[in-house]
Specification:
With about 400 residues, the protein is of the alpha+beta class. It has 2 domains: about 240 residues, no CATH class; about 110 residues, no CATH class. It is about 35% helix and about 10% strand. It is built from 15 helices and 9 strands. The strands form 2 sheets. Strands 2, 3, 4, 5, 6, 8 and 9 form a 7-stranded mixed β-sheet that branches. Strands 1-7 form a two-stranded antiparallel ribbon. The chain is elongated and about 75 Å long. The N terminus is likely disordered.
Length: about 400
């Protein structure tokens, strides 16, 4: 019996599970698949959103500033950040590109053949009161989903096309490339993304428009002959098995936030427990000791020993020590670029470096890595850096 032939998704198919990020290449999950509910109001059970449940009367669409989503750390539904997305829409009448606000995958932003997202780029559609709601042109922009790997279908003629991407991926791109650059030239971003994926990098992402949710969640792979993406589906499943959960936010990583908080707490504790007697050791001797305790190829036990040492010795470890161990992974910790000036005095920088080293220690097992957004951040950064390279080449 010949293997089943799979068809690519077409523009007129309902796109509830076909929102594929043009920046990272991962399919956005639907709201229903994440929270097992057909009512988008359930997102208000999140601690950072529950205050909005009390609005009376509750609007058809709860629209808030986009920063509510961009800064949210979803703890009850960790995958919820992958359900919020933006789009760059190409107008059929003017050929101009427009950046939309943030919407939610599934029926809250989809009606029939169309996708609706807020016109205002600084707003976010948090949820909707009805599954099939009405969308007014004054607040929402209507479009069809467009892919990046193929020529556009003739069916797109005379219709607005939208290129979607996760809200969190856009934040990373804005951080790396600059807000003014990307918001003034959204069309160039789409062009660069299309060139990047069409130049052979599609093998690192799922086939556009095909929902492979269960493959990722189960961490398994189907035989090539039964898979719509063939070997591509196989390689993507293996990536997940190696510790990449593509649905966790690469922008807000709870493990990094915990490391920052711990650095503040341990700095305060160290200032109370340091011994002036042990602090009389010459810096050369201290550096020799710490190099032995924590070699270049360190383990988490080594990190714990150094942390205990810093709580006792009243000495600053030379910067070269931290650079030699953290620098290979420095790109993963762009929080260092986002600190305000007042943060510098409250942080125990040596403890912060130790916290970051702990997150990338070689002894971390894959099962634990799968629950960390840091591994997904590394994947997303690789894709976005490739798109930025294309952006500079084309401009």
């Amino acid at each position: 019996m010949s293997p089943k032939r799979w068809k690519r998704a077409r523009p007129y198919n309902p796109a509830w599970s076909e929102v594929t990020c043009i920046l990272c290449g991962a399919v956005s999950p639907t709201l229903e698949s994440q929270i097992e509910s057909d009512k988008s109001l359930v997102v208000l059970e999140e601690a950072e959103l529950e205050t909005y449940r009390k609005r009376v009367p509750f609007p058809d669409h709860l629209i808030l500033p986009s920063t509510v989503v961009e800064r949210a750390n979803f703890t009850k539904f960790p995958y919820l950040s992958s359900c919020y997305y933006r789009a760059i829409v190409k107008s059929c009448s003017t050929s101009e590109y427009y950046l939309t606000g943030i919407g939610l995958t599934g029926p809250p932003s989809c009606k029939g053949q169309f996708i609706y997202l807020p016109r205002d780029k600084n707003s976010a559609q948090i949820c909707s009161r009805k599954i099939i709601s009405t969308f007014d042109n004054a607040r929402f922009r209507q479009f069809f989903l467009a892919g990046v790997e193929d020529r556009h279908s003739k069916n797109y003629k005379g219709k607005n096309m939208g290129f979607p991407f996760h809200a969190h991926c856009w934040e990373i791109l804005r951080h790396l490339l600059g807000k003014d650059t990307i918001e003034k030239r959204p069309g160039a971003i789409v062009q660069a993304a299309r060139e990047y994926w069409r130049s052979g990098n599609i093998e690192y992402a799922p086939i556009w428009g095909i929902d492979h949710t269960m493959d990722l969640w189960q961490g398994g792979t189907r035989p090539v002959e039964d898979s719509p993406a063939g070997s591509l589906r196989l390689s993507w499943g293996l990536l997940y098995q190696k510790g990449i959960n593509v649905y966790l936010s690469p922008w807000i990583v709870p493990e990094i936030q915990k490391a920052i908080k711990l650095a503040r707490d341990q700095r305060a504790q160290a200032s109370l427990t340091k011994s002036s007697y042990l602090g009389r050791l010459p810096i050369e001797v201290f550096l020799l000791v710490i190099e032995i305790i924590c070699p270049f190829k360190y383990t988490r036990i080594d990190i714990s020993n150094v942390r205990n040492l810093l709580c006792v010795f009243d000495l600053e470890v030379p910067e070269c020590f931290w650079k030699s161990r953290v620098q290979p992974h420095r790109h993963l910790f762009f929080e260092l670029d986002l600190f305000e000036e007042e943060d510098y005095d409250s942080l125990g920088w040596q403890f912060l470096w130790l916290g970051f080293m702990d997150l990338v220690a070689d002894t971390r097992d894959w099962e634990e890595a799968e629950s960390s957004g840091l591994t997904n951040r590394g994947r997303v950064l690789e894709q976005i850096q490739g798109i930025i390279t294309k952006f500079h080449e084309l401009n």
